[in-house]
Design a protein that fits this description.
By secondary structure, the protein is mainly α. The protein is built from eleven helices and six strands. It has a two-stranded antiparallel sheet. Strands 3-4 form a two-stranded antiparallel ribbon. It holds the Pfam family CCP_MauG.
């Protein structure tokens, strides 16, 4: 046997064994030590990084003033003040937290369980399902463009995203956690400790993760969910071929003093961010939801709810606080059926003065629906993490993403 053959006889098995060993090691899943990529150093689409490492919102609406009458909502009206200025790292950390079920009391529910990106950051249910299958009383609102909102929850009881998220996080019916348990869990994970240190570099070294750190990161992510590039937006910015004839007819009905939709759903955010008493029916004969009457301690707001944005409304059926209308056609039909027609006989609600009897035709209602669908834009959809710092699979709409691949 030649020297060359002898060398090959020993080298080839060694190479094969080494390759097999590498494959076996790669296949082993070691808990709590799985690699998590570094946080993103770039801002999400729709934001520009400044020299302070802050992501600042950028959009064409910034070129407009607010001189147009906000009750009418002209096409070139400026947006409200935006929550921006978070770092790319804080936004990306918030993305991980948003999809991570460890934020719940038993590790089975994430923020995305009720705010599914594929369902307009809602959940497709009439009323959401919370901790241990608890049936909640209201539907899950969309999170698109919450960076511009002033009130949160259907009844408007929170004034900031940080305040809002504490509701579901520490509700026994929703995510079933406590502040103490949340802090203990997240501070026990080395991956999260590393990422929080990266996202909050000005904190004292080795300082534990705080509740405010968690709130800030989730707020940063939610405030990055921007939807301002729909067919309607392109039309509003001057490209009039963006909408077809029927959609333009629908827009004109929407903005008319007959339908009066734009007086509450004011462009470009498509909400005036106020509480309105509409008198919508409750499902299955349930008692009237008092809505904003409770947090504001104001009987004139009985049955009142925050006017939602109509951005991506096509994706967030069913509609209203109770999810009582399955389609957009049913929803717009409610507004033409007569002022207070669905109010229980034993209730004396202060129906919003914009609600009357426009007597729109079936054709006009169809055109309204056509227009509402032009408000759909998911071009800045964030990516669902493939791996979480907790080494769990992302939970969306109460489903483990690893189990449904």
């Amino acid at each position: 046997m030649s020297k060359k053959s002898t060398i090959l006889k020993w080298v080839i098995p060694v190479i094969l064994m080494s390759t097999l060993l590498i494959i076996l090691v790669a296949a082993i899943k070691v808990p709590h030590t799985q690699y998590v990529p570094q946080l993103n150093c770039d801002c999400p689409p729709g934001f520009k990084l400044n020299d302070k490492n802050e992501c600042i919102a950028q959009n064409l609406y910034m070129a407009y003033s607010t001189n147009n009458d906000p009750g009418v909502g002209g096409l070139k009206t400026a947006l409200p003040k935006v929550r921006d200025g978070f770092s790319p790292q804080q936004i990306d950390l918030g993305r991980y937290l948003f999809f991570d079920p460890i934020l719940s009391g038993d590790g089975t529910i994430s923020c995305a369980s009720c705010h599914d990106p594929k369902k307009g950051f809602s959940d497709g249910l009439a009323t959401s399902i919370g901790f241990k299958g608890h049936q909640l009383k209201r539907s899950a609102p969309s999170l698109w463009n919450v960076a511009y909102f002033k009130l949160f929850f259907w009844d408007g009881r929170a004034n900031s995203l940080e305040e809002q998220m504490q509701g579901p996080l520490f509700s026994k019916e929703e995510m079933g956690n406590t502040p103490e348990k949340l802090l203990k869990t997240i501070n026990s994970l080395n991956n999260y400790k590393h990422l929080f240190a990266e996202a909050f570099p000005n904190k004292v070294k080795e300082a534990p993760i705080s509740l405010n750190d968690i709130y800030t990161a989730i707020t940063a992510f939610e405030a990055s969910l921007i939807s301002l590039n729909s067919k309607y937006d392109r039309y509003a910015h001057g490209y009039h071929q963006a909408l077809n004839k029927q959609e333009i007819e629908g827009m004109n009905i929407f903005r008319s003093f007959v339908a009066r939709c734009a007086e509450c759903h004011t462009p470009p955010l498509f909400t005036n961010q106020q509480i309105a008493v509409l008198g919508t029916p409750e499902p299955n004969g349930l008692a009237l939801d008092p809505g904003a009457e409770i947090p504001f301690n104001d009987s004139t707001l009985r049955g009142g709810f925050k006017v939602p944005s109509l951005r991506n409304i096509e994706k967030t059926a069913p509609y209203m606080h109770s999810g009582n209308f399955a389609t957009l056609k049913e929803t717009v039909q409610f507004y033409t059926d007569g002022r207070g027609h669905a109010v229980p006989k034993d209730e004396n609600l202060r129906i919003h003065w914009h609600i009357w009897e426009p007597k729109l035709t079936d054709y006009e209602l169809d055109r309204l629906v056509d227009f509402l669908k032009t408000l759909t834009d998911e071009s800045f959809m964030p990516k669902v993490p493939k791996v979480l710092p907790s080494n769990q699979a992302a939970f969306i709409n109460n489903q483990n993403q690893e189990s449904i691949k």
